[in-house]
Specification:
Structural class: alpha/beta
Strand order of the largest sheet: 3-2-1-4-5-6-7
Distance between the termini: 35 Å
Number of strands: 11
Length: about 300
């Protein structure tokens, strides 16, 4: 137990929103509460405007877990009035510390404005910086990120590369402390299944070596590289199978065209995989393949480690 209980507010995506950052926030809230701290979770009323969101839906399907923290939905990413409303809510709750989950410069104006307000109320401000700079850079990224970073008392990173990016953005660690921690292993998808059972659920052959590419499909993740390599893999291991499990944020047809030379050896489950089905995919696989062109850290790798699958 801690020396004293803190009041910790977490701001970022949380259920009903889906994705790795939401998983990270929920896990953080559970662990903080288990250690005796009071936790308030504030999430979005609108995370992305529909025109800017490349996927089918921003929301998770299925029932929530009993121990899932309840989030207060206040924040509109593109609605400045909601930024002030969120700041007033946080100040009224009187947190010792407010922690922002930061992964895209798009959210920096909202987070930076709220951070300045809660600091005036006496709270300390931290940010868990999942990405300091985006995988697909845009004009203005540096200025937006600096706006948030200048409003923080400390930063948490999960990899060397993000720490380096913070230095490129002008963060001086003597002025703004940066703590690097290991990305936690995600264990909230349940226990591993017997491989034969998992393959029956997914309709995969028992004896074939199964490769798994898991998660949102975006250009930087290099799925095209893996698909181009598959014919050579099949020359050496003819019975191998590749399962691509995840929603496409790119033109799906181009990837299917690249997969055509491999025929039935490549299977596309081209949709967001609900939490209840994650265990089956990882338990069915022999190997998780992440042919990323660039990366900071990976929640997918941490899921693979939980299910004892090499990456």
């Amino acid at each position: 137990m801690p020396d004293r209980s803190l009041r910790v507010a977490l701001v970022g995506p949380a259920p009903p929103y889906r994705g790795g950052i939401a998983h990270f926030l929920v896990s953080t809230a559970r662990r903080l509460r288990a250690r005796g701290h009071a936790v308030e979770v504030v999430t979005f009323t609108r995370q992305y405007p529909a025109l800017l969101f490349p996927g089918k839906t921003q929301y998770a399907e299925g029932a929530s877990r009993d121990d899932e923290p309840q989030a207060t939905r206040l924040l509109d990413s593109v609605g400045p009035r909601s930024w002030w409303r969120t700041a007033r809510h946080l100040r009224a709750w009187q947190p010792d510390v407010v922690v922002f989950m930061q992964w895209m410069p798009f959210f920096a104006p909202a987070f930076g404005t709220i951070a300045r307000q809660v600091r005036r109320g006496g709270a300390r401000v931290l940010a868990v910086v999942h990405n300091a700079l985006p995988h697909e850079p845009r004009v203005g990224d540096h200025a937006l990120m600096r706006y948030l970073l200048k409003a923080t008392d400390g930063l948490v990173v999960l990899s060397d590369s993000v720490r380096v990016d913070l230095a490129r953005l002008g963060v001086v660690e003597a002025q703004t402390p940066v703590r690097q921690v290991r990305h936690p292993v995600y264990d909230h998808f349940g226990d591993p299944l017997p491989q034969a059972e998992a393959r029956r659920r997914l309709g995969l052959p028992d004896g074939a070596p199964v490769l798994l590419f898991f998660g949102f499909v975006r250009a930087y993740k290099g799925l095209d590289v893996l698909l181009e390599a598959m014919p050579r893999v099949l020359e050496h291991v003819p019975e191998a199978r590749l399962v691509v499990a995840g929603e496409f944020y790119e033109a799906e047809a181009a990837y299917r065209e690249r997969a055509a030379p491999s025929g039935d050896a490549v299977r596309f489950d081209a949709d967001y995989i609900p939490d209840a089905e994650v265990a089956a995919y990882f338990s069915a696989a022999d190997l998780v393949v992440q042919p990323y062109r660039s990366a900071t850290q990976s929640g997918v790798a941490q899921i693979a480690f939980h299910f004892a699958r090499p990456v």
